[in-house]
Task: inverse folding
């Protein structure tokens, strides 16, 4: 007798494993609900766009909190608000070797020696590094620096202005932002080069100011000349009236 075996049912389709998203396709969702592509860096974190000359930046919360050499907390927005025309930040690496210390000293002293002309148009100058308040206080006192040194141990502001060098370094350079939040300079450079950048901005501001003052003076002179012509016309009319009156008096007896 033949034994009949029950036929096995075909197995159901197994669920497909979810596809992994590549780092290049990762997107960050903004508060408004829109998405913004995040650019991965070498360490896997998203890089922020470096501000460029001509950009207008929102100073509210920009760069986070930093400290002065006296330990007082401040922000870039507060420094800009307190300035007359804008803020100059020159960055220098943490002085860890005699070589870098010498270059940092040169840069700081150049800004010290040029402090008066560089601030003539209303810029406020600050040195920015990751050094501690104690270290910067010693540095400021020893070099007799007339400006405040900012301490950014977490490099939040240094990163925001594009002067961070991976993995933990700092690029020597200069960053200038106007009172209105417009980036006027953002570039790396040596001690003399960073000072020259600011000197160029000050010179340009001086030329613009002189041009405006010249236009004002010229307008006043034109108005003055117009007023003089009007006075001459009035004097001529007065003389003509007096002559006519005299002639009338002379003609009166003759007709009688």
Result:
């Amino acid at each position: 007798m033949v034994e009949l075996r029950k036929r096995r049912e075909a197995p159901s389709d197994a669920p497909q494993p979810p596809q992994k998203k590549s780092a290049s396709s990762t997107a960050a969702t903004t508060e408004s609900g829109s998405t913004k592509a995040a650019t991965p860096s070498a360490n896997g974190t998203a890089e922020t766009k470096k501000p460029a000359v001509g950009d207008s930046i929102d100073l509210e919360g920009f760069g986070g909190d930093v400290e002065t050499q006296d330990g007082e907390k401040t922000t870039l927005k507060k420094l800009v608000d307190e300035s007359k025309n804008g803020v100059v930040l020159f960055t220098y690496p943490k002085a860890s070797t005699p070589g870098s210390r010498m270059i940092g000293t040169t840069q700081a002293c150049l800004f010290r020696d040029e402090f008066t002309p560089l601030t003539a148009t209303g810029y406020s100058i600050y040195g920015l590094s990751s050094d501690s308040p104690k270290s910067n206080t010693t540095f400021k006192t020893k070099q007799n620096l007339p400006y405040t040194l900012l301490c950014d141990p977490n490099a939040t502001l240094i990163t925001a202005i594009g002067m961070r060098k991976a993995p933990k370094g700092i690029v020597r350079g200069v960053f200038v932002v106007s009172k209105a939040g417009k980036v006027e300079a953002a570039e790396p450079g040596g001690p003399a080069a960073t000072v020259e950048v600011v000197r160029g901005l000050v010179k340009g501001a001086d030329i613009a100011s002189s041009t405006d003052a010249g236009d004002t003076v010229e307008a006043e002179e034109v108005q003055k000349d117009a007023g003089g012509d009007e006075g001459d016309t009035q004097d001529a009319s007065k003389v003509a009236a007096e002559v006519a009156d005299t002639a009338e008096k002379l003609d009166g007896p003759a007709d009688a």
Observations:
- The mean pLDDT is 77.
